[in-house]
Design a protein that fits this description.
heterodimer, A: 449 residues, mainly beta, Porin, 18-stranded antiparallel barrel, B: 210 residues, Jelly Rolls, 15-stranded mixed beta sheet, 2 helices, 15 strands
Chain lengths: 449, 210
């Protein structure tokens, strides 16, 4: 109680110093039921997020946010800091036709697609905006984040990484440059990005170049650079599109034929991989505020890979390796590597006419996602995959999602999904015995105190 | 110049007044507006509660809504092109801008944005632009544009954050049930940060891999 009083006093004192001060606590509960032909899994996760925002002056801003997560079934508790950043803008908005901003600390960063990098990092960011350009340059390090808050997974060493002192995320030095040209020609907006990352794992922990002993439980370093270009715009009154292409290069460890016949040797080889996609959105504002969206995204895969992370046998790699790996799909979650997805989605707000009532904030969403692999090697979630199959089609997921946000500080979502695997024959991507129809029901509640 | 001044003298005229509408000419005091009264360059027009005014320009009609303060900054004709400049400080207005053979440059600015209109019908409140017919462009405070087609909306929020018609559509059609107070980069946040290709949190479920 005494500690709470001291904390409250400090917060009140700070609120009088700062021009504007705001803080709160967000509670998120996730309850999931997964049903497969192998087992049923009930899973509950509770997350508390404490946030504070300070407007120090008209041009300076400080934000900090931390979280604690408790998982009931395992059980385990994790904690971490999502954000602790100081941002300054020059000059004051409204006094110039350009804007210069600087951020230091722990901040969230994303490339324009969200597929290569969507993550927090510790570092600095510069922002420059003028009438025809938004540009961002950021440099940061991920090794001080907690592993539970990280989706970085590029190598076997990333997966194995467990420092003895703290459960930290894989250490990678990341640089990002983004250039956004709003409506630069024919009302179309152009995005250009360069993202790079350097593997900072200790060389003692990874396989050395020249090693001959094959060991798939351990791997090497991976350094990568991504060059992306995107175009988006409006094609008609209710019709919009987005498109992008990313080329990846860098180096990864491969096990190649050595000069001694029959032997293999670890060697770093270049990466030449790519990812591309488009999204078409058709809106029907007069009909229950509905929207029809078609999305297709593909990332290259390499048939020589022993696992989806590493194990290349060839002179070069064409496996696309994004830095951060949020998954796509509710029942059949997959990372965007060696994967092609085609998604058709329809959403509507059945009570959109009930303006001013809480029911206006209810949305129904149907989506079907077709999964294909780009090469015949593993995908990120390969459980039950038929290693002898030559099928690229993996299956289709169908989801029905209900989102409801009656108040600004209360939201909930009920999602029901089914995955229909390609398991029709013994030669399919999954065999009839290795994978059946999977179901997932997930309820999420989010509220703020 | 003579043509310009002639065009000026003939054209900005009140055609309909309802309720309390006052004007303040440069160097003058506030006086009640009357039907048929012409409006000089630099004049401030103010409408009160439940009041509105209609102003006829050479090739446009402006409907000034209630509780609005509007300044006629520019109205000139040069080589046949009509150039109109308005400044809206508070309130909202609707404009019907006619197409002319020589074209016209019709702009309304506010403390946080500028709307450029070309042969169209719009509603503008200084930050939000709705296009009813034709096409217009909304500029944020540093001059970045977003094109707005008919039956579309755009907004310049906090001066720099430009809500494009697509983002407006998403805001109207999507419900994000998850509460987040994170302010990314303070005021200089990249507006595209949470707007990337496939990661609308209402659709994609993010799972940590560990």
């Amino acid at each position: 109680m005494k500690r709470f009083s001291i904390l409250l006093s400090i917060l009140l004192a700070m609120s009088q110093q700062a021009q504007a001060f705001d803080f709160g606590l967000i509670i998120d509960n996730t309850t999931t039921l997964e049903a497969t032909d192998v087992n049923n899994l009930f899973f509950q996760k509770d997350k508390g997020t404490l946030w504070m925002n300070f407007d120090i002056s008209d041009t300076a801003f400080f934000a900090i946010q931390g979280n604690g997560t408790f998982v009931l079934q395992e059980p385990y508790f994790t904690y971490g800091f999502d954000q602790a950043e100081l941002t300054m803008d020059f000059p004051v908005i409204g006094q110039s036709s350009f804007l210069f901003g600087f951020t230091a600390g722990r901040f969230y960063v994303s490339d324009f697609t969200g597929f290569v990098l969507t993550h927090n990092m510790d570092g600095a960011r510069l922002v420059y905006k003028n009438p025809w350009l938004n540009s961002y340059i950021a440099v940061g390090f991920t090794g001080f984040l907690f592993k539970a808050d990280s989706t970085i997974l590029m190598s076997i060493e990333d997966k194995n990484y467990e420092p003895s002192f703290l459960p930290l995320a894989p250490p990678r030095l990341i640089g990002l440059m983004e250039f956004n040209f709003p409506e630069v020609f024919a009302y179309q907006t152009l995005d250009i990005s360069i993202v790079g990352q350097l593997d900072m794992h200790s060389t003692d922990m990874v396989k050395d170049e020249g090693d001959t002993a094959w060991d798939i439980s351990n791997g090497g370093k991976i350094d990568t650079l991504y060059a992306g270009i995107g175009l988006q715009g409006q094609l008609a009154e209710n019709f919009f599109y987005e498109s992008f292409f990313i080329f990846e290069t860098g180096r990864t460890l491969a096990s190649q034929e050595s000069v001694t016949p029959g032997n293999r040797v670890y060697t770093y080889v270049p990466i030449y991989a790519f990812m591309g996609g488009f999204k078409l959105s058709l809106f029907f504002p007069e009909f229950l505020a509905s929207e029809l969206t078609l999305t297709a995204v593909g990332s290259s895969g390499d048939a020589d890979y022993e696992t989806y992370l590493e194990g290349n046998y060839d002179d070069y790699s064409i496996q696309f390796s994004p830095i951060s790996r949020p998954t796509i799909g509710l029942v059949f979650p997959q990372q965007m590597t060696n994967l092609i997805i085609v998604e058709l989605e329809y959403s509507m707000k059945p009570f959109s006419g009930a303006v001013g009532t809480i029911w206006e904030k209810y949305q129904m969403l149907f989506q079907a996602i077709g999964y294909f692999r780009s090469s015949l090697s593993d995908i990120s979630n390969s459980e039950g995959l038929n290693s002898g199959s030559e099928d690229y089609y993996l299956g289709t997921e169908v989801d029905f999602i209900n989102n409801f946000k009656p108040f600004a500080d209360l939201g909930m979502s009920l999602a029901l999904g089914v995955f229909l695997p390609n398991n029709y024959t013994e030669d399919s991507a999954f065999t009839p015995d290795s994978k059946g129809i999977d179901f997932t029901v997930r309820f999420q509640l989010s509220f703020e105190i | 110049m003579i043509f310009a001044s002639m065009a000026w003298g003939q054209t900005a005229v009140f055609t309909e007044i309802s309720g309390k509408v006052e004007i303040k000419a440069p160097g003058g005091g506030w006086v009640a507006a009357r039907n048929g009264m012409s409006i000089a360059k630099g004049t401030i027009i103010a409408t009160g509660f439940r009041s509105q005014a209609t102003i006829k320009l050479p090739a446009a009609t402006i409907y000034v809504k209630n509780m609005t303060r509007l300044t006629l900054e520019e109205l000139v004709a040069s080589q046949g092109e009509i150039k109109t400049g308005l400044y809206i400080r508070t309130g909202s207005m609707e404009a019907q801008v006619d197409k002319t053979p020589s074209g016209q440059d019709f702009r309304v600015r506010s403390p946080v944005s500028t709307a450029a209109v070309r042969g169209t019908r719009i509603i503008y409140d200084g930050s939000r632009l709705k296009v009813l017919e034709g096409r217009a462009t909304l500029f944020n405070i540093i001059g970045q544009p977003t094109n707005v087609m008919a039956n579309n909306l755009a907004e310049s929020r906090d001066g720099v954050d430009l809500i494009t018609p697509r983002r407006f559509r998403l805001l109207n059609t999507r419900i994000n049930p998850f509460i987040s107070r994170i302010k990314i980069g303070g005021k200089s946040v990249p507006s595209s940060t949470f707007n990337s290709f496939f990661k609308d949190p209402a659709i994609v479920v993010f799972e940590l891999l560990w």
